[in-house]
Design a protein that fits this description.
By secondary structure, the chain is mainly α. Among the domains are: 3-95, no CATH class; 106-204 and 254-333, no CATH class. Helices cover 69% and strands 3% of the residues. It has a 3-stranded antiparallel β-sheet, with no helix packed on it. A two-stranded antiparallel ribbon has the order 2-5. The longest helix has 26 residues, at 223-248. It is globular.
Length: 489
């Protein structure tokens, strides 16, 4: 017999919403002051999630009811009138589930966990180091060519690895290469340019950065569609960044045969095969990386895989790579960023409670005001606001909140949320990290590498040197989202 389900709409008193708004502001401040608090993201978000869930239960705003598993929607009989948010279902069975379990977007968790494991195991083949050293030799030791090759490598690595891993690999090799070439004075320019390019490269694919995954999943953007829309922007912005970097940091070209011959002899000392322990595993890693990218790109159209999702693909490829180390796989589990995964689970729980406390609805009104500035003005304002927010705190909460808000608005009024709004959040959340050294983990890593090699750069110094790049990136992004994205999306 069909059953009637309701969405559970409710009214929340204003003082309750105000309390949860205050908690959200405190969470954002705590994340911005993470270093000062000497606490990991997972601990900060976990503490706020515990408080939010407890208060949500105390104020009776959370939906404590059984979850119906295996039910299917059925046509509404003629003459039966349903309230808004109600629907008829048939079959299935009730399952008692803690309220915070459905709060977590497990698809996002699976993508991050699977991709991290896959990349970590693949890196043991020596593939990424081999690519980097081959490019160093290709440059012939010319600083200007080296900047361009390392910049392009940074973008590509940021697209297939996480930004932090890409920055560590490229940054470390930059320091070694410039030292051998007796060009250590250029290290600041190289590392700053590479750090900024990690956030540009993070826009290349759906899985390049966490904001892409979160917003892309909510907006229903496929891997292939994301690449088609974002790649022209990444190409143009990468070229602009490298041209600016070469000029602003005065990266020279080699002149004369004597300089070229000396530089060539210095880079000849690099051996790309040093990091390859097994030629067979090296080839296997290269093949699997190519196959991983192809399957991820086609996941939305592949039979069965399209139903299982990107998380399944990431975990499946991680398992295949782990088979190579089946007796010692636990060492890769230890290398997983569990703090990041714990942070996500807690953050999703906080946002879930905020949704029921009507906080997201309140923020959504502010977003509506921005969008009310017109198709162009609203989208541009949303992009710049997202960039400003993500420059001073973690861009993940921003992406998660905005994804939920835009999803809710698109359901209630589809015409009020265009594809440009989704892309404004994606571009703003990624590029805002280039405004300050704390705006993204990869720029923070770049500054850390600078300090390690006695290249001091203060917070203010970073902002001064990065500001021309960041403003150029945002200007290109606004024009691109307004004029090009509507043609491609």
């Amino acid at each position: 017999m069909p059953s009637l389900l309701a969405a559970g709409a409710h009214t929340v008193p204003g003082h309750v919403t105000a309390i949860f708004c205050a908690l959200l502001v405190l969470l954002i401040l705590a994340l911005a002051l993470e270093e000062k608090l000497h606490a990991k993201k997972s601990i900060i978000a976990g503490a706020f999630a515990s408080v939010c869930l407890l208060l949500g239960a105390a104020f009776h705003i959370l939906p404590f009811q059984d979850v119906l598993i295996g039910a299917v929607s059925v046509p509404v009989p003629e003459g039966l009138l349903l309230e808004p948010g109600q629907w008829l279902v048939e079959g299935g069975h009730a399952l008692v589930m803690p309220v915070y379990i459905p709060a977590v977007d497990w698809g996002v968790i699976a993508i991050i966990l699977g991709s991290s494991l896959f990349v970590d195991v693949t890196s043991k083949s020596g593939l990424f180091t081999w690519i980097a050293i081959r490019l160093t030799k290709l440059s012939g030791g010319d600083p200007r060519k080296l900047l361009w090759l390392y910049g392009l490598m940074t973008v590509v690595f940021s697209a297939v690895l996480n930004n932090v891993t890409a920055m560590i690999i490229v940054g470390s090799l930059s320091a070694v290469s410039l030292s051998r070439l007796k060009r250590s004075g250029l290290l600041l320019g190289f590392l700053l340019t590479e750090g900024l390019l990690t956030n540009v490269g993070g826009l290349l694919t759906l899985i390049s950065s966490v904001p892409n995954i979160i917003v892309g999943q909510k907006a229903g953007i496929s891997f292939l569609k994301f690449f088609i829309v974002a790649s022209p922007f990444v190409v143009v912005t990468t070229v602009v960044t490298l041209l600016m970097g070469a000029q602003l940091f005065k990266v020279p070209r080699l002149v004369g045969e004597a300089e070229r011959a000396e530089a060539a002899s210095l880079v000849a000392g690099f051996d790309e095969n040093d990091g390859i322990e097994s030629r067979g595993f090296f080839v296997f890693g290269a093949v699997m990386l190519g196959l991983f990218i192809v399957v991820i790109a086609m996941a939305s159209v592949l039979p069965w895989v399209s139903s299982l999702g990107l998380g399944y693909v990431a975990l499946a490829f991680a398992l295949i790579m782990l088979l190579r180390f089946k007796s010692s796989a636990d060492r890769f589990y230890q290398a997983v960023d569990w703090d990041l995964l714990g942070f996500f689970c807690a953050l999703f729980a906080v946002i879930y409670v905020m949704e029921y406390a009507q906080v997201l609805h309140l923020i959504g009104r502010g977003v509506s005001v921005l969008l009310g500035l017109g198709e162009h003005g609203g989208t541009a304002s949303l992009l710049v606001s997202a960039a400003g927010f993500s420059s001073v705190t973690d861009n993940i909460p921003l992406a998660a909140m905005m994804a939920n808000i835009l999803e809710a608005q698109s359901v209630m009024a589809p015409e009020s949320v265009t594809s440009g709004s989704w892309w404004a959040v994606i571009f703003g959340a990624n590029l805002g990290g280039n405004l300050t050294p704390i705006g993204s983990a990869s720029t923070l890593v770049a500054v850390t590498v600078m300090h390690k090699h006695q290249v001091p750069l203060s917070f203010g110094g970073f902002v001064v040197k990065a500001l021309p790049f960041a403003l150029a990136h945002l200007a290109i992004a606004v024009v691109y989202v307004l004029l090009v994205v509507p043609l491609l999306a």
